[in-house]
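pipeline stage [seq->struct] | target=Magnesium-transporting ATPase, P-type 1 | organism=Streptomyces nodosus | residues=861
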Amino acid sequence: MASETAPPSATPRSPEAGVAGPTLLQELRRVESSPRGLTDAEAEARLADLGENVLPEARTPSWARLFVRGLRDPFTTVLLCLGLVSATVSAWGTAGVILSLVVVSCVLRAGGEHRADRSMAALRELVATTTTAVRRTDPDRPPRERETPAAELVPGDVIRLAPGDLVPADVRLLHASGLTVHQAALTGESAPVAKYAQDTPVESGAGPFAEPHLCFQGSSVASGSATAVVLETGARTRFARAHGTGVRRGASSFDRSVHGISWVLIRFMLLTPPLVLTANAALRGRGLETLPFAVAVAVGLTPEMLPVIVTTCLARGAAFLARTHGVIVKRLPALHDLGAVDVLCIDKTGTLTQDRPVVARALDGDGEDAPDVLRWAAAGAWWTLQLADLPTADALDEALLDAADGAWEAYEGVAALPFDPVRRLATAVVRGRLGSHTLLVRGAPEAVLERCELEPEERERLRARAAHQADQGLRLLAVATADRDVRTRAYTPADERGLTFRGFVAFHDALAPTAGQALGDLAACGVAVRILTGDHPGTAARACRDLGLDPGEVRTAGAPDELSATVVARCTPEDKARIVAGLRAAGHTVGFLGDGLNDVPALRAADVGIAPREAVEVARESADVVLAHKDLTAIDHAVTAGRHSSGNIATYLRVTLSSNLGNVVAMLAAGLLLPFLPMLPAQVLTQNLCFDMAQLAFAHDRPARRVLMRPTALRPPAFLRFITGFGLVNAIADLATFGVLAVALYGPDTLDDEAVFHSAWFTENLLTQALVMVLLRSGRAVAEGRAPGPVGRAAGVLAAVGLFLPLTPLGALVGLSALPTMYYLLVAAVLPLYAVALWALRARFERRSGEDREGPRPTRP
C-alpha cells in the first residue's frame, strides 16, 4: 500500500461495452483501499485533495448580470435605438422617457428571474444526505460503521447499502445479498435491476449500467443489502458528468416569436424617419426641421410598453403558479412557451404510473384464474420476509401481500431462501401434510420453468404464454411447489429441483390517480401527449390503455415514423432528445416532463423543460419549470397560466400595433396633404404616453375562455396580417373622420388654424384608441354581458384624457386648445359608425381565422 495520505488516482473509470473491466483486486489497488475501508486520516486527506462529493453547481447569475442580460432583449434594443435618435436631435424629454422605460423593464425582468433563482436554490438537495461508511480511527484498529455525510465520501471508502438507500457515489460491490436497485433515473427502466458482486467481470455488450457488479450515483436500493467500495465521487461520477452533456436548447418558441416581431418593428423604425424627411422635402420643400416630427412618428410606431407588459404578465403568472400550485418558473419566457405547447412529451414511469406494481391477476398454465396461485405466492413472500431477516419486502412481495389480504396465515413457515439475483428465485418452506414440508418457489418465469418437471413441449408453451403476457404490458412471477420429507438439515438452492408448476401472478404498474383526468384535460386544451419511455413497449401501451389514452401502434426508438407515434418505447436519452428536436423542427412547440438523468438531453432540447421537485438535481437544473409534485394536473394549470399571460401579451400587441400603424399612416398622409405638420412632436409623444399608460391594464386583463382552450403562439405573419388590415382601417377612419368634422365645422379655408387641427386630431386619436382597446381585446367584452374590467376602465380614463386635456393648462403647454361644442357633438355621431365598422371587421376576421386565433391552429400529431 502507498502512504496513508496519498490520494488515489482520480482518472475516471469508464467500462465500455464489450470490454471486460478490471478485477476487484485491481480496482481496490487503483483506489488504494481494502474491504476494511479507509482510516480517518486517509479520508480527510483525500477529501482535501479531491473535494466534496457534490454535483457541480451551476452558477446563479447575479441581479446585476440579469439586468444587463435584459438590455440585450430585442424590444429593449428598439427602445434604446429610439432613445439615442431622440438624444441626437436634442429631444431630451423623449430620450428621458424612453430610457426610463428601459430601466423599469429591465428592473422588473431581473427581479422576477432573480426571485425564481432564489426559489430554486432553496430546492437544491444533495443526492444523499448521509450514508453508512466503514472507517478506522487508525490502521491497527478494527473498522467501525458510522453515519457519514454523503458529501464527505471519497474514493476508497467502503459503504453499506440497505433498502431505500440512495447510492451516494459510483461504487463496486464487494458483497451483496438479494440486491436490486432502481435505475430509472439513469436508464428510464422502471423494473428493479439485479446486482451482485463479481471478482472478475465478464465481457458485456449492454453498457456500464447493465454491469451487475457496479452501482451508480442517482440509483436507489429496492431490496437486499450490500457492501461496496467507492470508485468515483463528485464531478467524476457518471451522474455528474451528464450534468454538462446533452443537446443544447436552441431558441424557444417565445424567443423566435419575439425576435421575428422585433426585427419587423426595427425595420419600420429605421425606415420611417428617412421616408418622412424625403417625402416632405420632395412634396413640401421642408428640410431638417421635420426631423423631430419624423422621430416622434417612429416612436409612435414602436410599442414602448412591450417589455414592461411582457415582464409584468409573465411575472404575475409565475407568481400565481408558485403561490397556488407550487410551480416554480425559472425562466420567465418559459411561461409563454407553456401556453404555446401543442405537444407534451413525458415518460411513463412516475408520471402515468406510480412506479409501484399491483397484482393484476393470478392464472394457471391454461390462462384461467387461479386464486391458489396467489395464495401460495403471498405465503412465500410473507415467510421469506419473516425468516430470512429481510428489513422490508421488495415491491413485488408488497403487492402480493396487499392482494392476498392475510391468506398466508394458514401456513406455518419453517425456512426461507431469499431472492438471489443469480438464480432469480426466492423460496419459503412451510409445513405441509403430516411428515412433509412444502417448498413455495416464486421467481422469474424462465428460472422457475427450467426447474419444473415438464415435457419440452409444455415448457415451450408456458414460455410462449409468459412472453405473450409480457407483450401485453404485464410483469410475471412464476409460482411452483414441491413436497419434501421433513428433515433437520438446512435447505439449499439444490432443493429447488423437480418442482410442480402452479401458475403465474401478473403485475402491472399502479396508475397515477390524477393521470387519466389530466390527460383528458390536456387533450381538451389541444395538447397532444407523447410517451417517450425506456420501458417495454407492451408495458407502456398497457398503461396508456388503462388511462383511456389510445396508444395506437407502439413504435420503438429509431422507427421511421417515430415522430407520429403516441408511444415510443426503448428510448435512450439520445433518442428522447432527437424526437423532441424533430417535433420542434416540424413546427410544434414542445414541452418535456422528465425527472431522471436520462431525461436531461430532452429537457434541454425542448422549448420548455419541466421537472418535478423530487427529480435528480441535474434534471431540475436543466428544466425551465419545476413542479412541487410529479403530477400532470400541475402541468395543466401551468399551461393555462401560460395562455393567460400570452393571451394578454397578444392582445396588447394586436391593439397597439394596429392602432400605432393606423396613426402613423394617417400622420404621414396628412403631413403630405397639409401645409403644416398634422401634429407637433410634443403632442405625438404626449398622445403615445397616454395610450401606453392605458395599455398597462392589459397585464391585468382576463382573457376569454376560448383563448385558454388552445395553444397560444405569437406568430409574426399572423400579426402582420392583423395589424395591416386593422391599421389601414384605422388610418382611413382617422382621415375620414377628421375630414368630415373639419369641413362641417369650418370649411376648406379654415384648415390654416393649426392649433384647432392639432387639438381636434389629438382628441379624436385618443377616443378611437380607447375604442380599439375595448373592441379588439380578447377578454370578456361588454357585449358578452360582463363588466369591462381593468381594460374597460383604462379605456374610459384614456377617453376622458382625450376630451379634457385640451381644456387644461397642461394641454396648453403642448400646444392644445379648447374646441367648440359642435365638435364634440359631431364626434359623438361619427365615432359609433367607426365602432360598428371596427366590430364588423373583427367579426369577419374571426370567421376567417377561426375565432381570433393567432394564425392556423397547430395540427395535432
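stage status: PASS
auto-comment: The chain has a mean pLDDT of 79. Residues 632-673 form the longest helix (42 residues).
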